[in-house]
Amino acid sequence: MQGDIEAHAGMLRSLGAVPSRVLSKSDLLGLDALVLPGGESTTISKGIDRLDLWDGLRSFVDAGRPVLGTCAGAILLSRSVENGIVGTLGAVDVVAIRNAYGTQVDSFAAPVDGGAREGLEGFRCIFIRAPRLRDAGPGVEVLAEVEGEPVLVRQGRVLVCAFHPELSADPRVHRLLLPD
Questions:
Q1: What is the CATH T-level fold of the domain 5-177, as seen in this structure?
Q2: N or C: which end of the chain has fewer CB within 10 A?
Q3: Is 8 a catalytic residue?
């Protein structure tokens, strides 16, 4: 519906995956993993309403399938949202604060802090109108931080990141999504 879908698809192809778009519940059938890309979270949420995808997405998550939400996708996967009314899937026990890193002109890139997990040391994070991830519950694992704040977290098979890994040439975040 929105976001840099082609950049995600290219990253996934480089890792040997065969990406496809999801625009209906039936498109979710047979998928090994799912990416909810960035974009504008209100617009994406309304698109999910229009396409009647909430139940299908919830079923996909509830089945324990791998999911990656980037920026707006992270907002949609969080338990709740601040700075706007947006529907969420409640898949990750974290609060997403919309646009907390600033407006479009405040976009920036920063490396993850040195103590990153899953081999993500030095990953260059690109933030564009990004959400902050706060109040992580006990089942949430912080995989990467920037300036001491979580920017990539995992709960079960669901990953959410405040940045845009698809805009990097580095496949490490997408590799975490793919089944073994």
A1: Rossmann fold (3.40.50)
A2: C
A3: no
